[in-house]
Amino acid sequence: MENKDISAVVERVAATKAAWAALPPQQKLELLDQLMDNLNAHGEALHAASVFKRDGDLKDAPAYSALSAADLQALQNASRAQHWLHSSMLVSNWLSIIREYFEAVVKTGAPPPPLAVREAPAEEGKPQRHIVKVGPSGLLHTTLVTCGSLELVVEGPVEQELLHERPPGVAAVLGAGNFDGPVDLLTALFIENKVCIYKLSPFNARLLEPLEKIFAPLLEANFAAFIFGGVEEAKSLLHHPQVDKWFMTGAAATAYSIIWGSPEPQQPPAEPLFKKPMTVELGNCTPWIVCPGKWQAIAASMAFNGAHICAHPQVLLTCKNWPQRQVQVKEFLQLIQSYIQEVYYVGCYYPDFSSRMEWASAAAAAAAAAAAAESYKEKLLAMGKKAEEFEAPVHCPIAKDSEIKKIIFATDLPEDCFFTRQETFCPCCGEVPLDTEASLAAFLPAAVKFANEKVHGGLSVSISVKPSTAAEEQGSCANPTSGFRRSAPPPRLAFAARLAAAAAAAAAAAAAAAAAAAACGWLRGGRSFALALLERAVADLNYGAVHINIDTKMSIAFPSLVWGGCPGSTIYNLNSGIGFIMAAPNGSNAAKMAKLWRRIAFASFQRRSTQGWFSFAGSLTKIASAFAANL
């Protein structure tokens, strides 16, 4: 990596832009095969660097010194599994799906077709929208979404585009610090058809060596380059005259500073200082709309990557008036809290997470007072909440250098609260009960309206709902305690037993895939009372990613979909960002980017997973990595 003269790096890479754009699909396919071979050779090094970046050597971490050997091993396994998902496995998944596009072009001269296309519910005065099914395909992807469905909403006619014929250019990427697979680099090169200079986040310095080995064919040909640095290096990169597009994942204030020279946006007719085209993803206060059911997966979702992720569930929307709410919802929330205690929280590593949750030291308190800031704990106390009501104990410290053994899970919050306005980016989640009639028909539209109008952002939203007829819904309302009861937590299995259980579960999922395929079409089956309500909810939600019965953190794993804020943001109000990464090479390029509206991920209604496979890794990650690389 050359950092002394960023201008020279840009010039060297820019000189290859025409050659890259003109490179035949066969040669790009061969490059992808080389990258996959390199990932097979160096993926474990990338994974190890990802783990060490966050956790260091757990055995030497002062916060974990009191843990038993069994708990320390379980924590280490959980860390390995989580960080494998957004490092080696993430890159493997992307390479394999992008490869499908180029393989189809080489064999047939055309992109792979969508799996299915159908018309979406029509809206008066607007172009016809279509639902384009793009996955899953293969055992791994089918298992990841629990035999569900991956779909895109496309506005206007469905038109295929040859991605490798897009015009040449030079892209600059300001890489994220919370993900270790540089998938935006792959977007720039193989989907945008541009050569790319990728600036690593300061958090990711340890990743450079394995990344340089994995992407060596692209670096050696000067189709790409890695640089490292802070604000000044970012400015030099973005303002270079050869750079014609930039990508960023981060905070809105950072994007505004680049565009306007100030962390606050200007208003029309003001002209921006920086006008280059961009794709920026800026996060949101991810809402999770919870209809009655047993949804323990929410607790596991709250633990992923120390909650340092824009798809972390932050606002749970429930119905205030379900019959005997104090029984039903109390048991539901207690169920989440019980799983919070079981999940091993790993990887809280952003330096200010503890001070944002609660002032951990006198120095932090003094700095906060000088900035007139309040921690989330202080804000909740000021709202009249008691600490014991919202501090949820966890199994072990949530960071290697912190004694904190609790996260914030606040319930019964008012509709106007900081959880809906401010992205926490740490283990904080709040339940907001909506005052609606006790029916899905009343609650779901109200929750959609609230998510659109009261929750900051438009990046990602999830809905948990069970299939029902009208009679079944009335029955569940009359018997509100059904479905939430839970016995004592099951005993923790030995690693070998858990590995065997995971293998058995995977085999069962594969055997059930064909039968479950019918359930994947639940929006079209007409058998469920929830059908029309969910179709309307999907159409009305102003979010780039809509998930039904599936964790929002699966969203970036599939380049056959798109990832970004809902269309409509501007430089005067970025909201969750502008543009998409991915652009969907595996058939979902069936629509041009300007016409892609949002993505939908569905999982089977009867999903039982608690994502407990986060709790162990060891050889399993190596087996699964090799399996993914050979799909």
TrEMBL record:
**Which keywords appear in this protein's UniProt record, sorted alphabetically?**
Membrane, Transmembrane, Transmembrane helix
Write out the transmembrane intervals: 499-523
Q: Which GO terms describe its molecular function?
A: oxidoreductase activity
User: InterPro entries per the record?
Assistant: Ald_DH/histidinol_DH, Ald_DH_N
- Asked whether the UniProt record includes RNA-binding among its keywords, one would answer no
Tell me what this protein is called. Aldehyde dehydrogenase
